[in-house]
Amino acid sequence: MPNSSAKTLPYPATTDPVAQGADAIRKLAQSVDNMVQTGSVTVNVVTAGTNAQTAVVFPVPYASPPTVFVGPTSGPPSDYSGYWWPSGVTATGFNAVYKRSTTGNFTGNWVAVGAVAPVT
User: Where are the domains of the chain?
Assistant: First the structure.
């Protein structure tokens, strides 16, 4: 099964037997599904004004470290008074770091975007 040059998305070749077409399309769909992963994470800020973090494990590991974005969930404006960022990003996960001037449990959303990896 060849890959497109831009995103390395797998696709069936014109010479592939029709019987293999369904499997090739399944692999394409799973590759795209795994390329973008999302979730939420709760960080407990114990000491105001200091960094707090929680480890996040990707549902499906990437072939290489993806680009990760972390930010607040939708909520009252007071939920946006801190700073979120990813730290220690690897192919299997990252640490969601949050810093704010008050204590408590705060929930953020994360998005990871990585290269397409072939699915077998």
Answer: 36-113
How many other β-carbons are positioned within 10 Å of the β-carbon of residue 50? 10
Q: Give every residue of the chain whose pLDDT is below 50, as ranges.
A: none
The burial class, CB within 10 Å (0-12 / 13-18 / 19+), for 43 is: buried
Q: What is the value of pTM for the model shown?
A: 0.77
Exposed, middle or buried, 57 (CB in 10 Å: 0-12/13-18/19+)?
exposed
The fold adopted by the segment(s) 36-113 is Immunoglobulin-like (2.60.40)
Q: Which two tokens stand for residue 22?
A: 């369904």
